[in-house]
Write a structure and sequence with these properties.
Bound molecules: adenosine-5'-diphosphate
Number of domains: 1
Structural class: alpha/beta
Radius of gyration: 17 Å
Low-confidence stretches: 214-222
CATH superfamily: P-loop containing nucleotide triphosphate hydrolases
Helix content: 40-55%
Oligomer: single chain
Number of strands: 7
Number of helices: 9
Length: about 220
C-alpha cells in the first residue's frame, strides 16, 4: 500500500501517518523529519537545508526529490510506505511520477487532510515534538502522560522553531502558492480522498480506515 498524505502544515498528517503505520506495517516517510535529522547530525545535506527550514521556505525541488526517491527505494519500503510532506510542489509530484514509472510502481491512494485556518493555527501553536523519536503531541488536544515529557522515551519535548507565528505565516503562504495546486493534480488522477481534518484524531483514523477498506472494529460494549 503506497499512500500520499496531502494537506496544510498542522492538519495532522504526521499524527494520522503514525497511526496508519501500525495498521499497515509500512514505514512513514516524513520529509520534514528526514531533513531535521540531517540538520541534527550536521551532515552536508543538513547544513544546506537548515536556512530553508528556519525561514519556512521550501527546500529546492531537486534536493528533496533526490532524498525522498532514494528513501522510498530502500528495502523497508518494498511492501509500501506513507509519504508525509512529499510531494509538496508540482515539479516534485512530476518527478515522483517519473520515478515510479521507472520503478514499475504506483501510488495506491492520496489522502487529503483538510482543516480550517483557525484549527491549523491552534494546532501549530500547541504542537510539541520529541527530538529523539519524532513523536508529536499537542499541549491541549493530545497531551503526553507527563507534561513536557515524551511517553515513549521520556525525552524533554520541544516546540519546533518553525512553529513560531511569523514562520507559520510564511509556511501557510507557501502551502497556498506551491502545494495547493497538487490537489487538482491528484484529484484528476483518481484514488484521491478528502478527509475532514478538523475532527478528532480517532474519527479521522476511522474515516481513513474506511477509505482503506479496512475492517473497523466494532465498539466493545461488554
Ligand atoms: P509541516 O508538516 O508542519 O508543514 P514538515 O515537517 O513537513 O512540516 O516540514 C518542515 C519544513 O521542511 C518545511 O517548511 C520545508 O522547509 C521542509 N520540507 C519538508 N518537506 C519538503 C518538501 N517536500 N519540499 C520542500 N521542502 C520541504
Ligand atoms: P502535520 O504533520 O500535518 O504538520 P501534525 O500531525 O504534526 O500535523 O499535527 C499538528 C498538531 O496538531 C500536533 O500538535 C498534533 O498533536 C495535533 N493534532 C493532530 N491531529 C489532530 C486532531 N485530529 N485533533 C486535534 N489535534 C491534532
Amino acid at each position: 500500500m503506497r499512500i500520499i498524505l496531502l494537506g496544510p502544515p498542522g492538519a495532522g498528517k504526521g499524527t494520522l501517518a503514525a497511526r496508519l503505520v501500525e495498521h499497515l506495517s509500512v514505514p512513514q516517510l516524513a520529509s520534514g523529519d528526514i531533513l531535521r535529522s540531517q540538520i541534527r547530525q550536521g551532515s552536508d545535506l543538513g547544513r544546506t537545508v537548515q536556512q530553508y527550514l528556519d525561514s519556512g521556505a521550501l527546500v529546492p525541488d531537486e534536493i528533496i526529490v533526490k532524498v525522498m526517491i532514494s528513501r522510498l527505494c530502500q528495502p523497508d519500503c518494498s511492501a509500501g510506505y506513507i509519504l508525509d510532506g512529499f510531494p509538496r510542489t508540482l515539479p516534485q509530484a512530476q518527478a515522483l511520477d517519473a520515478s515510479l514509472v521507472e520503478l514499475e510502481s504506483q501510488i495506491d491512494l492520496v489522502l487529503y487532510l483538510d482543516a480550517d485556518a483557525e484549527v491549523i493555527i491552534s494546532r501549530l501553536s500547541g504542537r510539541r515534538v520529541c527530538p529523539v523519536c519524532n513523536a508529536t503531541y499537542h499541549v491541549d488536544n493530545i497531551p503526553p502522560a507527563v507534561p513536557g515529557k515524551c511517553d515513549r522515551d521520556g525525552a524533554e519535548l520541544i516546540s519546533r522553531p518553525d512553529d513560531a507565528p511569523d514562520v507559520v505565516r510564511t509556511r501557510l503562504e507557501n502551502y497556498r502558492r506551491l502545494t495547493q495546486p497538487l490537489l487538482d493534480y491528484y484529484a484528476g488522477v483518481g484514488r484521491f480522498h478528502r478527509l475532514d481534518g478538523n475532527k478528532d484524531i480517532s474519527e479521522i483514523y476511522q474515516q481513513a480506515l474506511q477509505v482503506l477498506g479496512g475492517v473497523v472494529s466494532p465498539v466493545d460494549e461488554s
